[in-house]
Recover the amino acids of this structure.
């Protein structure tokens, strides 16, 4: 741990020296790298809200170098300043990191850099700042590629309006307004084009990619539908529970829902050994030793990770597969092992625990809770509201006491809100149904034999020869 801290400090110092050296060689004022490292230092300090976690130094550096390089090229070749893609980095930052704070701070830095490289042009820096703030607000929570292009168009309009104000409400050169309008649209199109590259480089996932993964035409979800339909239905319910709970505590709802869809894909290797895919009163574990059964059950986590890598799932989803049980106890087979224990034998509880890791984010922790709560509620013979409420509170309390939530950022207030959401949704899904009385009249009519032909009336008899 101490060696790693020393390496991190040396790497940071080397990065500082390198950036200042590049600035010196390019004859860029040292205010530019100083402002950049002020942003880095801000993220190295502890925050009041533990959920705030800034992007990596590499990610910020790469985004900064994009706008720095483009601005430097444009200004040094005496190209029009309005060619600078003001909204490109703010859009990328907001879509990639989903953090308004990070994106707005990056807007501040890039605006200062653009103004400095353009000869300390105050108005150009203000144009960049207004454009960047507008871009961040317009692409916040964006889920479709078309919405990004639409946001780019609106940013272009805002840029044109800002330029009109800078020109003191007079149109000096109409071409400049066409250029600045096209600037915003091109930024939106460019973001769509380069987004997959940055997702791969930063090992992150955007809302746009998550919606693509939520498409039920994905090969893994298609396999679940056909090979493990019970697990598929279970994953859908867990996804809905997780999404609603995340909204209640301010976590990433879409990420949790999609993560829940894939959290149990490891069960595809042996679907018949899991209760949701078994027939009534039929279990493949009846003829197996508890030690063998727990190996099969626990192995679905590793199988899921291997399957995710084979299908090249985004690394962000692997966290849900790895940690959706934490290091919790496989209680049922542990009790079975204790019941069959001989006098001279001992059973270690650690041997019946999942390998972990424990959930490290709010989203993975909520999926862990939703997974356990849904399975326990489905096992109830008479799921009335009181029993559902009791089960939800019991499961969440047990996970908390067992230490499964120690490494995530959920508070006691969050757990209370999550419990309320789970109880409300599960009460609607697994409620007891009313036994409607049978319609005896219609049943009796159905039992009467149909007559071949009605008897003729007196009038008909008279009319017949």
């Amino acid at each position: 741990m101490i060696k790693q801290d020393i390496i991190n400090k040396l790497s940071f110092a080397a990065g500082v020296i390198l950036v200042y050296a590049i600035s010196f060689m390019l004859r860029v004022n040292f205010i530019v790298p100083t402002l950049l490292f002020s942003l880095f230092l801000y993220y190295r300090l502890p925050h009041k809200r533990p959920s705030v976690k800034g992007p990596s130094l590499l990610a910020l550096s790469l985004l900064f170098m994009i706008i720095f390089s483009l601005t430097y090229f444009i200004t040094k070749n005496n190209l029009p300043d309005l060619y600078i893609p003001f909204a490109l980095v703010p859009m990328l930052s907001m879509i990639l990191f989903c953090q308004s704070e990070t994106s707005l701070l990056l807007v501040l830095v890039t605006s200062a850099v653009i103004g400095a490289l353009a000869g300390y042009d105050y108005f150009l820096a203000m144009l960049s700042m207004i454009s960047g703030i507008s871009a961040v607000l317009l692409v916040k929570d964006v889920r479709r590629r078309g919405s990004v292009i639409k946001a780019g168009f609106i940013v272009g309009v805002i840029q044109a309006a800002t330029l009109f104000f800078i020109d003191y409400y007079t149109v000096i050169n109409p071409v400049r307004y066409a250029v600045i309008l096209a600037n915003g649209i091109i930024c939106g199109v460019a973001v769509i084009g380069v987004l997959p590259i940055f997702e791969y480089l930063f090992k992150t996932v955007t809302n746009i990619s998550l919606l693509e993964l939520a498409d039920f035409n994905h090969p893994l979800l298609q396999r679940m539908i056909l090979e493990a339909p019970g697990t598929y239905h279970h994953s859908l319910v867990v996804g809905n529970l997780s999404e609603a709970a995340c909204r209640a505590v301010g976590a990433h709802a879409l990420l949790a829902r999609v993560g829940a869809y894939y959290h149990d894909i490891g069960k595809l290797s042996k679907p018949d050994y899991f209760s949701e895919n078994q027939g009534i009163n039929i279990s493949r574990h009846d003829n197996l030793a508890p030690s063998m059964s727990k190996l099969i059950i626990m192995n679905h986590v590793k199988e899921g990770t291997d399957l995710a890598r084979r299908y090249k799932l985004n690394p962000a989803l692997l966290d849900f597969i790895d940690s959706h049980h934490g290091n919790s106890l496989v209680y049922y087979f542990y009790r079975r092992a204790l019941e069959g224990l001989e006098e001279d034998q001992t059973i270690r509880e650690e041997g019946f625990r999942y390998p972990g890791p424990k959930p490290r984010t709010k989203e993975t922790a909520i999926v862990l809770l939703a997974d356990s709560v849904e399975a326990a509620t489905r096992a109830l013979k008479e799921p009335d509201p009181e029993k559902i409420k009791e089960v939800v509170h019991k499961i969440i309390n047990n996970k908390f006491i067992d230490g499964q939530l120690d490494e995530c950022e959920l508070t006691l207030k969050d757990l209370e809100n999550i419990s309320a959401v789970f109880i409300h949704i599960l009460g609607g899904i697994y409620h007891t149904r009313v036994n409607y009385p049978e319609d005896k009249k219609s049943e009796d009519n159905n039992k009467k034999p149909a007559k071949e032909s009605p008897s003729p009336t007196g009038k008909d008899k008279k009319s017949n020869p």
In short: The first helix runs from residue 2 to 25. The two ends are 113 Å apart (CA to CA).
